[in-house]
Amino acid sequence: PLEMSAKQPVPFLRQVVSVTKKVRRDPRFDDLSGEYKPEIFMKTYSFLDSIKKQEKEMIQKQLKKCRNMEQKEKLQQLLNRMTQQEQAQKKQQKLRERELSLKRQQRELAKQGKKPFFLKKSEKRKLELAEKYAELKRSGKLESFLNKKRKRNAIKDKRRLPSQKNL
Asked: What is the pLDDT of residues 70-84, one digit of tens each?
């Protein structure tokens, strides 16, 4: 038997035989799971989009039939969340396509023998903003967007100004 020191208190649950721990692995960080490629992922799980679309239609039908206000509110929140997820996915897809097109252009230039030029993050952001403005102008919502932005900036400026009490 193992001899224990009398000066240290004996632990309440002392392990007599050591138990081997099960090794759990996280597929996000493990090399065994392979490399994550968004294009392949989107192709593999594209069937989920149709299922989500059906679920969304089903929720809309339930929302029209529902009489209970609490249930109606929950369904409305669920519908809003689903639409937001859909919009975020579209936005991400657009961003991915834009990056791929930039890469293709760089490859074309490299084939022609020119030195590749990579955009900075700030430059990419400016291009994205210009595209957003063009889209808003096309849809006719540019004025309302700019008005909202002006109001937001005015509120921020007001907050930054010293209050009238201090003067």
From this structure: 999 999 999 999 999
